Every structure is written in structure tokens, then in C-alpha cells.
Amino acid sequence: MNTIICDDSVNGLKKVSDNSVHLTFTSPPYNATVKYNSYSDDLSFDHYMSWLEDVFREVYRVTVSGGRCAINIDAIKKHTSNSSTEFRCCIYTHICNMMTKIGWLFRDEICWYKQNIGGKKASWGSWLSCSNPCTLRNHEYILIFCKDGWKLDGDKEQSDMTKEEFIVYTMSTWLVHTDNRHLANHPAIFPEELAKRIIKLYSYRDNVILDPFCGSGTVPYVAKLNGRRYIGVDIDKDYCEFASDRIDNANDIFEKNYIPRSQRISDSKLRKVDIDNEDMDLF
Q1: Contact of 48 with 33, CB cutoff 8 Å
Q2: Per the structure, how many domains does the chain have?
Q3: 117 pLDDT exceeds 70?
Q4: CA angle 90, 92, 97 (to 5 degrees)
């Protein structure tokens, strides 16, 4: 535990014990010709899906019963193998089919509204025309899967969401701005806030959090900040070294003064009583 494994995702996951991970949160390469250091992001569609299946079969093996897997993905560019049937590849449907084939249970989806825009407005020659317009991509999806059942057993006192966080996190659309930093020269950083929400909503403190495509280490970094253990896997040596250094400088923000869930609920009720009494004093 608490390690970054520098290896191909499938081979790296083989080094992880069965039934040891409580939550996986990851964003696999989108097969959209992004320029990574040590990976070709332009596979044939069949090769891409076969590779993802190999990865998430390993993730399934290492996940505890009741554990979760959250996958951040967007629709991807059309490939020659499927361009006659899909203008834009609806990758999330392919991933859902793949995951259920492995044995995962589909639990939920979250729409990540990024606000910033990616992609081109229209095909050449169709500006201000209905000929062949393209929608601008200002959202992505997070697909949530479970292993065996819906409930993750654990110590409820170690569920660390505040009331305010719970209300926001249980909405199906999240407004979270992208992270435009190029940490370790990685071309596709996702924001710490996104990782924080998934980790706190779907795991307890001291659970093990996995990212098999950890890149600059955002998921393990945020996991450590929030009192979880972590495993990260990435094929690129530079990314792994950066992630390790980044995590070494992280400290659990609640390490010395974490307040158990029942006490936080009780304190919240007492504050509500105090507020109600103050309101009565006004009359």
C-alpha cells in the first residue's frame, strides 16, 4: 500500500493483491491522439477496447466485495473502424457493456460540467450552416460501478463528508473547473476537486484508493490528503517520480483532529437548535 508502481497498467495491477482495493478512480487515455510521454494514444478502436477490458478485469480482481470503480471518460473522435456508424464515438456505452461483461454492476453516472470548451465549432465549409455542425465539448462523464453489491461495508464514523459536501456531491451534475497546470508536463491533468468528491463520496477514511493510470498522481495525492491509503500505476518514469515527490509532500488534513461522523451530526443538530433559539429571541 501507499505506493506508485512504474509499469504498464495491466502488469502493474498484477502486483496488487486480490480483494485489497475499496475504490478505483481513474481517467484512462481517451484514444484521442493526446501526446503522452510513453504511450501511443491512437490505437485502433478494437485494440483500445480490448486493452481497457484487460485493465478493468485486473481492477475487478483487486477490488473488495462492495468496492467501487469510477471512470472519467468523454466521447472520443471517430475512428475509421466505426466512422460509418458513429459521428462521435459514444465511448461510455462501450465501456458500460465492457464493464458488465467483466462482472461489474452499473451504479450511477455523474455529469462533470467543465464550463471551458474543447473541440471545433463546425466541419470545414459548414460555418453558420446546419450542413455538418459539431457540438462543443464542455462536459464529461464519470461512470460508477460496484463489485457484487451496492453497499460498501466499513466504519460509518470514518465517513468524512460534511453536510454541505454531501448535498453537493449527491447531485448528478458537478461544476468543477479543469486544472490547466501541466504538472510533470502531463497533457491531461484532472482537478483535485474532482478526485476529492469521488473519494469522499464513495470511500471511508483508511480505505485503499487505486488509480491504474495515475499520471502526475492527483488521485493518490488527494487520497493521502484525505486520510486514505493509495496505489498508483503509470508506465512513464517521469510521471511516477513526480507523483511520488508530490505525495511525499502531502499530509492528511485531518490527521490530528478528525471529528467522527456521529459527533459531526450531533454538533450540527446542536447548532440548529441554537439558531432556532436565536430566531425565537427576535420575536
Answers
A1: no
A2: 1
A3: no
A4: 110
Residue-wise DSSP of 268-280: HHHHHHHHHHHHH
Per-residue pLDDT band at 160 (split at 50, 70, 90):
very high
Give the other-Cβ count within 10 Å of 11's Cβ: 12
C-alpha to C-alpha distance for 130 and 145, rounded to whole angstroms:
38
CATH for 226: 3.40.50.150
Measured between alpha carbons, how far is 215 from 179 in angstroms, rounded to an integer? 14
Three-class SS state of 112: strand
pTM for the full model? 0.87
By residue range, what is the domain housing residue 224? 3-281
* Structure confidence by residue, pLDDT tens digits, 257-277: 888 999 988 887 766 545 455
Q: For residue 280, what is its C-alpha cell?
A: 425565537
